[in-house]
From TrEMBL:
Protein name: Nucleolar GTP-binding protein 1
Domain NOG1 N-terminal helical: start-end pairs: 105-263
Alphabetical keyword list: GTP-binding, Nucleotide-binding
Phosphoprotein recorded as keyword: no
Domain of life, per lineage: Eukaryota
Record-linked SUPFAM superfamilies: P-loop containing nucleoside triphosphate hydrolases (SSF52540)
Biased composition (Pro residues): 18-28
Length: 464
């Protein structure tokens, strides 16, 4: 130090490098581990170099910077978690899988009509002042024009970005809700509408940036005003050209929010049967649901929900569209809604039969449909109900002879153990309510058992 000072030299002192935690000891590397870690090491070091100054010293001793890369490593695989922290790691496949729950439709954002978005954007952008302190008139005008065009662009595009980001992706939905989207709007329509919204957003952003840049290069006040007017016109034209996508999204959001909410943890009774056999009438006497009751088929065109409160317990009841006798591939979307409920929801089945044929469907056709559904979903808890029992024998049957002995047996007695009910004459209604309560109580026990089994499996897979 003295020698350097006497020679009038300058001593350059380098700052002490920040403390770095030593890396944790590595486990013995297998062939697969060595290959994966060597492949990911450059990316890890590159990410380390981009850390802000002074960040590493804040780490506690023994904490490795590799955790900042959000990598999950094991002796067999290395999975980059990205931004998917809400998922869960499937140990068998090494993939990130989101929890499948229902209720996503009630969380979608409110969609403003295109006219309201445009009027709000115009009003807000016109109130944007130039930057303070600009004395030159031309500079002040071009600054104001560029800022107002930028504000108009953002006011038009930000809502569209919100919609595309906050509407659920189909792949993240519960299978039941995925089916509802497909059967309600048709295959691919939901994604198509969101894609058009995103295309409109990109178009508005491109036009807005282009005209804001041009306006910022104006040399005179008049030129800046003209370019501001032209930019507004082009932005509004671009928005008007794609506003039909917003109108379509408004309808999609309205339809999705109106769909019934199903709680997977509450036992649900699902009424199934041919059209017009009396399912809706039974829903009205069993629950709080008030579906339309008419004497023509396919009155129920969607999934209708009601609730039962019995002995301080709460249950759900759903009315489904009727099923005709035909192959599943030939069913319309209304019938496929019923199959979606049976396939994807933990429900108990109340199957309704009309042996009087007052529904317009022959006993033979009802039997074939019933046999198909019973074979396919026979693992569900089940009650068979013969409705309109007061009409049995009072109406001439549609088909007088039954070639099949099984159909003849079904015509006389219905399925084994079926309960005969008449809503009009109140026959068997009290017994039906008791049977339904017993069925749903059993369904509650099954749901709890399945939940406990699932938690046990998760606990087992999470143990290293």
């Amino acid at each position: 130090m003295r020698a350097a000072a006497g020679c009038r030299g300058v001593l350059h002192l380098r700052p002490r490098p920040p403390w770095r935690a030593p890396p944790p000891p590595r486990p013995p590397a297998t062939t697969t581990t060595t290959a994966l870690l060597s492949h990911s090491a450059p990316a890890s070091r590159a990410h380390h170099r981009r850390l802000p100054k002074g960040f590493l010293p804040t780490l506690e001793p023994g904490v490795s910077a590799v955790y900042l890369c959000r990598r999950a490593r094991s002796t067999t695989c290395s999975v980059l978690m990205d931004d998917r922290s809400q998922g869960e790691l499937d140990g068998a496949k090494g993939e990130v899988r989101k929890h499948e729950t229902v209720g996503a439709f009630q969380k979608i954002p409110m969609v403003m009509p295109a006219t309201d978005i445009l009027m709000s954007a115009q009003r807000k952008s016109r109130n944007v002042p130039p930057t303070k302190g600009i004395a030159n008139i031309a500079k002040r005008e071009r600054n104001k024009g560029a800022k107002q065009l930028d504000a108009l662009m953002k006011e038009l595009s930000v809502p569209l970005r919100t919609y595309t980001e906050n509407f659920p992706k189909r792949r993240d939905l519960h299978p039941y809700e995925r089916s509802l989207i497909e059967l309600t709007f048709g295959e691919g329509y939901y994604e198509q509408v969101l894609g058009r919204i995103d295309t409109l957003r990109k178009r508005i952003t491109s036009v807005g940036k282009q005209h804001a840049s041009v306006c910022a290069k104006s040399t005179t006040k008049r030129e800046a005003e003209e370019r501001l007017t032209e930019g507004r016109k082009r932005l509004e034209e671009a928005f008007q050209h794609g506003k039909h996508a917003i109108d379509d999204l408004v309808n999609v959001a309205k339809a999705l929010r109106s769909m019934p909410v199903v709680d997977l943890h509450i036992p649900t009774l699902c009424l199934v049967g041919s059209p017009n056999v009396g399912k809706s009438s039974l829903v009205r006497i069993l629950s709080s649901g008030k579906p339309e009751v008419c004497s023509y088929p396919f009155t129920t065109r969607g999934i209708l929900m009601g609730h039962i409160v019995s002995n301080h317990e709460r249950f759900q009841v759903t009315d489904t569209p009727g099923l005709l006798m035909r192959h599943d591939d030939d069913r319309n979307n209304i019938e496929r809604l019923t199959l979606a409920v049976l396939s994807y929801l933990p429900i108990a089945v109340l199957y309704v039969h009309d042996l009087s044929e007052d529904c317009g469907t022959s006993v033979a056709d009802q039997y074939i449909t019933y046999k198909h559904i019973k074979e396919r979903f026979g693992d569900r808890l089940w009650i068979d109900v013969i409705s309109k029992c007061d009409l049995l024998g009072k109406k001439a049957p549609i088909s007088l002879e039954d070639a099949d002995e099984e159909v003849a047996q079904y015509r006389r007695f219905g399925p084994e153990g079926a309960l005969r009910v008449s809503v009009q004459s109140e026959i068997g209604v009290k017994e039906l309510k008791e049977r339904v309560h017993q069925l749903l109580t059993s369904q509650m026990a099954r749901i709890k058992a399945d939940k406990a089994e699932h938690e046990t499996q998760e606990a087992g897979t999470s143990v290293p």
